Amino acid sequence: MPALTRNKKKGAKPQTPPTKQVTKSKTPPSKPQISTLKKGAKSLKKPPLKKQKKEVVEEAPLEDDEVSDDASIDAESEELDESDDGEKGSNGLFYNDDEEENEDDDDDEMTLGDDFLEGSGDEDDEDEEEEEEEGPSDVDSDSDSDGDDLVRKSDAIDRKLAKEKEDADAEQQETNKQDETEHDAFRLPTEEELEEEARGPPDLPLLKTRIEDLVRALKNFKALRPTGARRKDCVEQLKADLGSYYGYNSFLIGTLIEMFPPGELMELIEAFEKQRPTSIRTNTLKTRRRDLADVLLNRGVNLDPLSKWSKVGLVVYDSQVPIGATPEYLAGYYMLQGASSLLPVMALAPRENERIVDVAAAPGGKTTYIAALMKNTGLIYANEMKVPRLKSLTANLHRMGVTNTIVCNYDGRELPKVLGQNTVDRVLLDAPCSGTGVISKDESVKITKTADEIKKFAHLQKQLILAAIDMVDANSKTGGYIVYSTCSLMVAENEAVIDYALKKRDVKLVTCGLDFGRKGFIRYREHRFQLSLDKTRRFYPHVHNMDGFFVAKLKKMSNMKQSSEEDDEAGETVEQAEVSDDDDDDDEAGETVELAEVSDDDEAEAIEELEKPEEAIEELEKPKEAKENKEEERLAKSKKKKKSKKRKKSTSNVEEPPKVRKQKKKRSEWKKEIAQAREEKRIAMREKAKEKQ
Amino acid sequence: MRPLDETETTVVFEKLFKFVGNNLKKIVENPSDEGPESTPGSYCFRLQKNRVYYVSEALVKRATNISRKNLVSLGTCIGKYTHAGSFHLTIMSLNILAANAKHKVWLKPTSEMSFLYGNHVLKGGLGRITDSIVPGDGVVVFSMSDVPLGFGIAAKSTQDCRKLDPNGIVVLHQADIGEYLRDEDEL
């Protein structure tokens, strides 16, 4: 019998635990008969559960099906109980030993087990706890519970051991608690406390410690979370505290929190509080870096080469004379210039005899660097929109001995009209921006910049970058490059602008030629940019010890502007998606579905009529169109006119319509849905047409 | 932007001649590297909003599509017409003057800064001086390390300078590179 049951048991046991409990509660009527057996099973099993849990499976089969079922449940729940209760360990040990002896011979063990098991003290407790109905059988078992002295002795020893263990556990827990309380010394302030704080002037030391605590907690939120606080609450509190401690407005600090993990955020904010080292750029038109360094050293200026990536930069540690007013400075031997503003020019890599446009040139640091790299050959259009800044631009150009520039005063967006499209080799667009990367230079950025302002800048930047791209000649022998840079950290002003340009013009990103700096974001919150955006470079004050900066280098592939209609749609979706993703997308989708249906009919016609001569088609189209559309699309008539024009073009070129359709499908998933809808509609239309015929 | 007419040309050339003498010919005929063409062009003088520019012809050609109102500067500005109608060389012409100067003085390091603040050159600050200067000649002022600092008009001849007392004026100040800082707005 045992052998049989064992097999059954093995099959059943692992799967059934949850259902067993149900059966257990249903089975009480049969209990009196099996009670003894059952107890045996339980107590047999307990020991292995406690000390040798893995053997449970092998022990279990000893019982009848029903019994073993029940027992196994009990055993499982006991496992939990026992591990908590030290007292019950005694039986465990005892039976454990017993078991080890008999492990090999299951049959024997079973009989033995039955005898012994009748009276195990702890079994009663457990039964009482778990199955009240078993009460009567418990009484029996109690009387049996006093066994040999051995049992008692081992009992005592077990208790002792268990108690020791318990003590140790308790101690451990206590120390753990202490650790926790050390970390957990802070909690989020209640609303009342916050109100209280708001009344008085900010308590800076308190804020500082709270910021530190919050940052530490956020770094490892699982372990160190303040009791009862959600992560969101912590972030909100951190935002408020950082705002009031460092004087940021809520928008800016919110964006920074979104961009950086808490630890890095603190580094960044601290870096914004410090000045960046003063750096100067040697004017290679007039002198060499070594000569300049010698002269300045003699004047008591303590300086060093900037870093290995620049051959013209020097960093100034301290100086006995004002570094911006030495005779050498006035003679144009060097330019005071942040290290970060060398980067876009290095990325631009101008060559001699090229035509170059600097769209936003003042105060001329980058322009003079370009001229120096070109050795005063070629031609630079230095444009600046703001009249007051023109003075410093021309002064700097003359001081540095630059002779190859034409300084003009236009809005950058008008430049393609003025200078002509596709006429220059390279364009440097150091776009006007919010300046969130140069907070250490200009603290007012902390308070003045708002989401609206960022949006305005982003809009201007998008216009400017398109204008910049339009000026470049893709067929230029040496050039065809656009470098876009800002001193902002905002994604909306950087990656989003480049992404927009990639969609609107036939350009691609190329590596900047700068072997350091962080890669640009490909994914940022709700934005998903093109993968090539990892070729752009970001520079941070806390990482690279220069102002926050962004550089991207584009190569213009062809002078073609992408087909206008597709383009406009793309542009709209991009812009709107930035404002709020879901809603606008839906609307957009709705609109385009309409449009697509209209155009689809046209295309279908076009395909049908492809075999006919082109001239004939044009004549035929108008009446046909009128017939078909009267029923459905009176509203869409104005749209249709445009489309019909487009169709004429497409009919003239046999291969175009399918191409266009493919592109649309690629764009995103809802386009696919539209395509399906079209297909259905097309079929319907054809059927209609047949019927008519 | 337009070429200089005859009277203007004579005025400008006379001024330049004071400083560079016969090197004026070199200035006018100097081949220019500017412009996208690889073959060197030549320089010319252009008047734009009361200012005279010394600029490569290649640049002039390409500046034509920029409207007069929006064209701020091109090439090198060498001087301006004042309201009274006289022509002044400005500090921006220093590069051209220094490269072709006929008469030069070198200042001691101690008096460099004094000159850069707009003071005249005194005998005490004089380090070196070229020969054969006559009063009224244009003189380019250098530091002892040959950094051009400005220019002015000789007040004394070279011979007279030798006997002059240390506070005597040698060169009357006309322009110095300190103006880039002091008068950036008026350049």
Automatic annotation (TrEMBL), chain A:
Organism of origin: Capsella rubella
Record's compositionally biased regions (Polar residues): 18-36
Region feature (Disordered): 1-205, 560-693
Primary location group: nucleus
Upper classification of the organism: Eukaryota, Viridiplantae, Streptophyta, Embryophyta, Tracheophyta
Any one GO CC term of the record: nucleolus
InterPro entries hit by this protein: MeTrfase_RsmB-F_NOP2_cat, MeTrfase_RsmB-F_NOP2_dom, Nop2p, RCMT, RCMT_NOP2, RsmB/NOL1/NOP2-like_CS, SAM-dependent_MTases_sf
GO biological process: maturation of LSU-rRNA; rRNA base methylation
Acidic residues compositional bias, start-end: 58-85, 96-148, 578-591, 597-608
Binding site for S-adenosyl-L-methionine: 360-366, 384, 411, 430
Pfam families: Methyltr_RsmB-F
Protein keywords: Methyltransferase, Nucleus, Ribosome biogenesis, RNA-binding, S-adenosyl-L-methionine, Transferase
Residue ranges, compositional bias (Basic and acidic residues): 149-166, 174-190, 609-636, 670-693
Protein family per UniProt: Belongs to the class I-like SAM-binding methyltransferase superfamily. RsmB/NOP family.
Descriptive protein name: SAM-dependent MTase RsmB/NOP-type domain-containing protein
Catalytic residues (UniProt): 487 (nucleophile)
GO MF term list: RNA binding; rRNA (cytosine-C5-)-methyltransferase activity
Domain SAM-dependent MTase RsmB/NOP-type: start-end pairs: 268-557
Subcellular localization: Nucleus, Nucleolus
PROSITE patterns documented for this protein: NOL1_NOP2_SUN, SAM_MT_RSMB_NOP
Skewed-composition ranges (Basic residues): 1-12, 39-53, 637-650, 660-669
Automatic annotation (TrEMBL), chain B:
GO MF term set: RNA binding
Keywords: Nucleus, Ribosome biogenesis, RNA-binding
Main location class: nucleus
Function: Required for proper 27S pre-rRNA processing and 60S ribosome subunit assembly.
Species this chain originates from: Capsella rubella
Record-level GO cellular component terms: nucleolus
Family as reported in the entry's similarity comment: Belongs to the NIP7 family.
Protein name: 60S ribosome subunit biogenesis protein NIP7 homolog
Domain PUA span(s) in chain numbering: 103-178
Domain of life: Eukaryota
UniProt KW rRNA-binding keyword: no
InterPro entries with a match to the protein in the record: NIP7_N, Nip7_N_euk, PUA, PUA-like_sf, PUA_sf, Ribosomal_synth_fac_NIP7, UPF0113_PUA
Quaternary assembly: Interacts with pre-ribosome complex.
